[in-house]
Amino acid sequence: MAKNDELKAAKARAKEARAAEKLRRKNSTDPADMGRLRQIQQAYKLTHEYDKPLPFLLAGAFLVPVVLGVVIGLLIGHPIYATFLGIMLGLLAAMLLLVQRTKKATFTRYAGQAGSAEVALSMLPKQWTYSAAIAANRQLDCVHRAVGPGGLILIGEGDPNRVKALLASEAKKHERVSYGIKATTLVMGDKPGQVPLNKLADHVRKMPKTLLPNQITDLKSRLRALDAVRPTLPVPKGPMPTSARQARGSQRAMRGR
Q1: Non-local CB neighbours of 77 within 8 Å, separated by 6+ positions
Q2: What pairs with residue 131 in β-bridges?
Q3: Looking at the chain, which terminus has fewer C-beta neighbours within 10 angstroms, N or C?
Q4: Are 221 and 101 in contact (CB under 8 A)?
Q5: Cα–Cα distance measured from residue 46 to residue 155, given in angstroms and rounded to the nearest whole number
Q6: What pLDDT score does 250 carry?
């Protein structure tokens, strides 16, 4: 009898845990917790805020292949097959367009915010890894790091004059532990000689391949040792708001107050 009660209690706890997890995933804003359909809905919703023509563009991308499919189907005598093919191509075209417009809207959304380089670096392919804000100062200038086939890349973000000194300091620290692997430095921004936010991921991804997979693994291990002795930076993750009041709050966080 006692075993039956324990079994029932265990089943009840498991049921409650499943219900709680289901509720958490339902209310989560993390794409990893969403199904494919909800991910698409969320992407559309966020993109439409910054891209008002989006519904018309998606409708056009879908309808053009469908109409062509119907016309071609009537001409060749296979309207059902050609229409179905047109629908599939229309869905594919609409999805590809949504991905493209979502990226563009994301860059528009975070442009000018401190820490926005992390948004671009998160779009790097899986061969690359990145570490956001490995170094920063009280003015919210910071240095991000990316490691991949194109080598060891340090990305400065902030005031060009201050961030160059920060980049030079970080390059020296990294090259002391990288054993011959030079650090490539660049500054994110819209001025001449800088890399714009919306082109940052492509710029890093297209770096000439200089490292083999085993070299990347070894370098990551050495960099973990470097990061382990760094003081913890009280820098919020991701882009930070730029209004005066919000920026003051971020600076207080930087000072640990």
Answers
A1: none
A2: 145
A3: N
A4: no
A5: 27
A6: 38
With a cut of 70, say whether residue 251 has pLDDT above it.
Answer: no
pLDDT digits (tens, 9 = 90+) for 216-239: 999 999 998 888 887 766 555 566
In angstroms, rounded to a whole number, what is the distance separating the alpha carbons of residues 91 and 117? Answer: 31
SS3 assignment, position 216: helix
Computed over every residue of the chain, the mean pLDDT equals 82
Cα–Cα nearest to 135, from 144, 127, 126: 144
State what percent of residues in the chain have pLDDT above 70. 80
Q: How confident is the model at residue 248 (pLDDT cuts 50, 70, 90)?
A: very low
Q: What is the DSSP string of 163-200?
A: HHHHHHHHHHHHHHHTTT-PEEEEEESSSTTSB-HHHH
Q: How far apart are CA 47 and CA 66, in angstroms?
A: 24
Instruction: Indicate the domain borders of the chain.
Output: 34-110, 117-255
Q: Please work out, in degrees rounded to the nearest 5, the angle formed at the alpha carbon of residue 157 by the alpha carbons of 194 and 155.
A: 75
The per-residue pLDDT for range 44-85, each reduced to its tens digit, is 888 888 889 999 999 999 999 999 999 999 999 888 999 999
* Segment 124-144 mean pLDDT: 89
Q: How far apart are CA 237 and CA 117, in angstroms?
A: 11
Are 201 and 124 a contacting pair, CB within 8 Å? Answer: yes
| 109: exposed, middle or buried (Cβ count in 10 Å: 0-12, 13-18, 19+) | middle
* Tokens (6 digits) for 27: 């209310």
Asked if 130 and 122 count as a contact pair (C-beta separation under 8 A), the reply is yes
Q: What is the pLDDT of residue 245?
A: 35
Partnered with residue 75 across adjacent β-strands are none
Q: Which residues pair with 130 in a beta bridge?
A: 146
